[in-house]
Structure to design on (184 residues):
C-alpha cells in the first residue's frame, strides 16, 4: 500500500483477539469489543465527575481507554494469574509490550503515533485521575461482562467477577461507591 495510514485503518487484529480464552464462555468477547466498552464507560464516568464539579481531561481518558490494550494485537490477552505470577515475567512482558506498541501505531502520522504511544506508556506507568478512571472503567467492563455470562449460567465467571469487584473496592472515590452498591 502506498498510503501507510491505510494499513492502520485496515488493521482489525483486535477484533480477532479473544479475551478470557482460558475460561469456558457462552459468547466470546474480543479485545476490540472490550476497548469499546471501556471507552464508553470511561466517557460516562467523565460526565459524572464533571457534573460533580471535578476537572478531568475527557479526551485523554477516552484516548487512553481506546488504546489501553493495543499491545494485545501482538501478545494476545495474557491471562492475569499468569502475567502477574512472577515479577520477572511481568517485567519482561512489560518491556516487550513497550517495543510492540510502536508497531501498533505504524502508518499513523508520526506526531499522532508518538502521541498515542506516550498516552499508552503514561497510562501503564502513572496514577493520574485520568488513568484511574480508565482502570476503573476497565474493571467495570469486566464486571458487566462477567455478570452477563453468569446470567447465562456460566459459573466459571464467578471468581473473575469477585476478583474484579475486589479490585474496584480498593479505589476510595465517593462517586464509585454508589455504582458498586448498585452492582452488588
Amino acid at each position: 500500500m502506498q498510503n501507510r495510514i491505510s494499513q492502520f485503518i485496515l488493521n482489525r487484529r483486535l477484533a480477532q483477539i479473544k479475551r478470557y480464552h482460558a475460561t469456558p464462555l457462552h459468547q466470546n468477547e474480543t479485545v476490540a469489543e472490550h476497548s469499546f466498552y471501556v471507552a464508553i464507560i470511561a466517557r460516562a464516568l467523565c460526565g459524572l465527575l464533571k457534573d460533580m464539579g471535578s476537572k478531568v481531561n475527557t479526551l485523554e481518558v477516552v484516548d487512553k481507554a481506546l488504546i489501553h490494550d493495543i499491545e494485545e494485537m501482538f501478545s494476545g490477552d495474557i491471562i492475569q494469574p499468569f502475567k502477574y505470577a512472577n515479577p520477572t515475567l511481568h517485567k519482561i512482558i512489560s518491556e516487550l509490550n513497550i517495543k510492540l506498541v510502536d508497531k501498533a501505531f505504524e502508518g499513523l502520522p508520526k506526531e499522532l503515533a508518538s502521541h498515542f504511544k506516550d498516552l499508552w506508556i503514561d497510562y501503564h506507568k502513572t496514577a493520574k485521575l485520568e488513568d484511574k478512571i480508565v482502570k476503573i472503567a476497565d474493571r467495570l467492563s469486566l464486571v458487566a461482562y462477567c455478570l452477563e455470562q453468569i446470567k447465562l449460567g456460566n459459573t466459571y465467571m464467578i471468581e473473575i467477577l469477585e476478583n474484579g469487584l475486589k479490585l474496584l473496592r480498593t479505589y476510595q472515590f465517593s462517586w464509585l461507591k454508589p455504582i458498586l452498591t448498585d452492582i452488588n
